[in-house]
Every structure is written in C-alpha cells, then in structure tokens.
Amino acid sequence: MIHKYKLGGYNICLDVHSGAVHLLDDCAYDILGIIEETEKMEELPDEKVYAVLGEKYDREEIADTYQALYEIYKDGLLFAPDDYEQFAGMMTKAPIKSMCINISHDCNLRCEYCFAAKGDFGQGRCLMPLETAKKAIDFIIANSGTRRNLEVDFFGGEPLMNFDVVKQTVEYARSIEKKYNKNFRFTITTNGLLLDDEKTEYINREMNNAVLSLDGRKEVNDRMRVTPNGKGCYDIIVPKYQKLVAGRGDKDYYIRGTFTKYNLDFTNDVLHFKELGFDQLSIEPVVSDPKLDYSIKYEDLPRVFEEYERLADTIINSRRKGEYFNFFHFMIDLDQGPCAIKRLRGCGCGNEYVAVTPQGDIYPCHQFVGMEQFRMGNLHDGTFNTAMKEDFARANVYSKENCKDCWAKFYCSGGCNANNFQYEGDIRKSHKTSCELEKKRLECAIMIKAALAEDSDEVPCDGEDCFAQCH
Amino acid sequence: IKTLNKANLKESK
Questions:
Q1: Contact check, Cβ <8 Å, B7/A15
Q2: Distance CA A294, CA A260 (A)
Q3: What is the pLDDT of residue A462?
Q4: Pairing of strands A183-190, A21-24
Q5: CA–CA dist B5, A453 (Å, integer)
Q6: pLDDT at A464 over 50
Q7: Residue A462 and residue B5: Cα distance in Å, rounded?
Q8: Are A130 and A166 in contact (CB under 8 A)?
Q9: Which string of DSSP letters, residue by residue, matches A175-243?
C-alpha cells in the first residue's frame, strides 16, 4: 500500500509497510497513479502506461522513470507487503508501565471545553489522599513486570491544589524504586494559577516533563479558560510560565493549548507562544459534543486543513531563517521512530496505561474517568478487571475495521479509544473527524521533512543527530 | 526519485 499526495510543491509517496518516504518528479508521480491499484510491478511497463502518459512525456522518459521505480520496488521500498498482522495477534496483556494519577478532582478554573466536567469528572470535588497515591505507586510497581521505566503523570483537575501530596508521592516512589529496580519519570500538567517560586523550583527539579496549559493569544485563552467568577487567566499565568521555562534547563516542557471553532486561525496562537519565548509547543483540536458552538465538526475540516498547511509553511520559513520552535503534532522521525510493535499497540490505554481517581478507582485512561462501564477496579478493594485489560490489549490497528487498510495506521496506531467511544460508541470504531485531522497532520509533518531535506541536501539524514536538527 | 529515509519498519527486533 502506498499513499501519494502533493503538498507544498512536493510530490510525496509513503510506502506504508516499509515506512519508506519518497520524493517523486511529476513523471514518477503520474506513473504511480496508474499502477498503484495493482500494488505490484513487472520489469517493464504495461503499454497502458505509455498510452495514458504518452501526450505528457516522451516514451524514453516514461521507460527511464519506470525503471527507477522498479528498482526501489525490488529493494522492498515500494508496495512492500503487509507482514504485520501476525504481530497484532500477539498483542495480549502487557505490563502496566504508565499511570495518570488524578491527584485532584477539583480545579480553580472553569474552562468551557473541559473534558473533566470542569475539574471533578462529574464525581464531586475532592483531593486524593496520600494513602491512595501511595497505593497507586504500589500498584504500578506490582503490575509492571520486568519493565524498568515507569511513568506517572500528575493530572486532574488541577494538581497544584494538592501539591503536598504530589511531593510526598514523588518522595515515596523515589524511596522504593531502587529496591524494585524501577526508574520513575514524572510529569505534571498544570493550569499555572497556583505556581509560585517554591512550586516552580520543585517542578524544575523533580518533574521530567511539565505540561503548561495555555490556549494562545490573550483573547483566545481568556474566552475559554476562566476562573469561577468568569475572569480570564492569561495575565496571571504567562509570567509564571516564562519564569518556569527559564529555569527548566534541558528538561522537557510543553506549552499545551486547545483550539476550537473560535480560533481556527490557530497558527497565530502558535506564533504567539513563540513570541512569548516558548519553543516546545502543542495545540490540539477540542474534543466536545458536536452540538456545542465551539466544537470542530466534519464540515470545518477544510478550514482546519488550510490552517495546518499554513502552520507547516510557517515552520519551514522559520527554520530557513534559523529560528527554532518545535510543534509537537508535526514531530515525526522517519528513520528511528517507535518500533512496529509500539505502533501496533498505540498509546497503551487500558493495557499498559491506566488512570487512577482520588477514590482509588482505576480507568483505562484519563479520558475514560467517570464512565462507570469502564471502571476497571479499585486500589482499596484490590479489584482489577483483567478481561477489560485484555479487550483493550486487542484493540489495535488490525482489529479496527477502518484502520486495517488505512495508510496512516503505523503513525496514528488506531487513534484514540476514548474519542472513538465518545463519538462512535465503540472503542474499535474510528472517529472520522479525528482520523482526517491526524492524516492531515502527518501529511504536513512529512512535507516539512521533505522541504528541510531539500534545503540541507543531506539525504538521507542520520539518526539521532538528524532528529535533533529537525526537531 | 529521492528517498528521504532509511526505513526499518519491518526489522523493528
């Protein structure tokens, strides 16, 4: 299977099952258009190729171009067969190695689009007791098998509203990790309101990653991200984020926003992040009831696609001027990305990854919290639904009808189970709007790679060093 | 044709 498309002045072809990405001239692109349905090549072109393209190219050029395509076909880099379903069948239970700890089901903001029902996931406002947080750490250690790297994300609600328990949980995990030969990596996701010097210093010392919520320009952010009395938070949080990032050193952070129908010109928000001095940026489409005014609907896609292309062009132009910022959703490593097994597994929701509530309830991920039919168990009574875990383990690109024959399957890994359930009522039914958005982001990400490769004339790039330069 | 990467999906041990 191949996916070929034109973008940014480039003719691009992704060979799905080898992972190879080719830039083509017009003749090669047109030949592929004729032969792509057969998914195989003979040594010499069929007369049909000459007949269809004879008016556009001379016979010698067609023959020469066909031979070039045939060579990469022989090398296994074009129309490579799909050998992966056998591995999908091996996707059974895996150790749990990452966890979202909802340390707070309370929040000091009332963001309009919050999937956590403005902080409490519809379960009443409360904070996680230390005893529950310790049990969460014990649970992930006990269920992580031989996995050494364990990840914990402090989430909510607003984690800074329960910061003492965050600190004590980290201290507890650090006190026992060596005994069990584990390495904890912590992330915190915050709205920034309660950041002060002490919390900032702690986060920069102890958190491997900090995700800082901000939607973009002041008027965009303050329209959706408001305090209980309806005031925007931009003026309070931006200086705090700037201070935190200035002290971040080489540790990861992301400024992470949500775009809605109200700011489909979100490139301007990404550029605003950059103007504020941030260079690790993420902005995602809102997930919401399609009936709401700010939701992004299928009919909005052409406008969103146009904006993603504008953002891609902006990134290319910035790099050409020697300016650097990283847009998370255009990050792609064409040489050394995740292995095929990881691509089949996806995010690991419900299998390798779970979320825990202040009451100790266990859910497949942070977006399933509060959906009673997806409650997997509880830390306090020791219950855990292994059948549900196995069901999530089997939800991979080969068990999702719309994914199996999709060109993007090894990049999106079957999409988000929670989005699928929210919109389609089934974790195995892909949500069409989310799919189209992901495919567009991938096309843009590959096009950026093509443009930068053309600029540097360093094809192919070289592993780690290449990744650092391009991202 | 210019191939942009050294794809190793099948190998990806």
A1: yes
A2: 5
A3: 39
A4: unpaired
A5: 10
A6: no
A7: 9
A8: no
A9: HHHTTTT-EEEEEEEE-STT--HHHHHHHHHH-SEEEEE--SSHHHHHHHSB-TTS-B-HHHHHHHHHH
Sequence-distant (≥ 6) Cβ neighbours of residue A261 within 8 angstroms: A286, A293, A294, A295, A296, A297, A300
Q: Give the gap in angstroms from C-alpha A192 to the nearest C-alpha of chain B.
A: 40
> Residue A148 and residue A154: Cα distance in Å, rounded?
19
CB-nearest to B7 from A19, A25, A339 is A19
Other beta carbons less than 10 A from residue A226's beta carbon: 16
Residue A204 has what pLDDT? Answer: 97
pLDDT band at A248 (very low <50, low <70, confident <90, very high): very high
Which of chain A's residues have a Cβ under 8 Å away from the Cβ of B5?
19-21, 334-335, 460-461
pLDDT in tens, A211-224: 999 999 999 999 99
- Compute the radius of gyration of chain A from its Cα atoms: 24
- Residue A53, pLDDT score: 94
Question: DSSP class of residue A281?
Answer: E
Encoding tokens for residue A351?
């299998």
Q: What is the pLDDT of residues A154-166, one digit of tens each?
A: 998 999 999 999 9
Task: Give residue for tokens 């952010």.
Answer: A221
Instruction: Please tell me the least confidently modeled range out of A27-31, A115-119, A444-448, A454-458.
Output: A454-458
Contact A453 B6 (CB under 8 A): no
Rounded Cα distance, A347 and A172, in Å: 26
> Using the beta-carbon criterion (under 8 Å), do B3 and A22 form an inter-chain contact?
yes
Residues ≥6 apart with Cβ < 8 Å to A230: none
Query: A21 and chain B: CB distance < 8 Å anywhere?
Result: yes
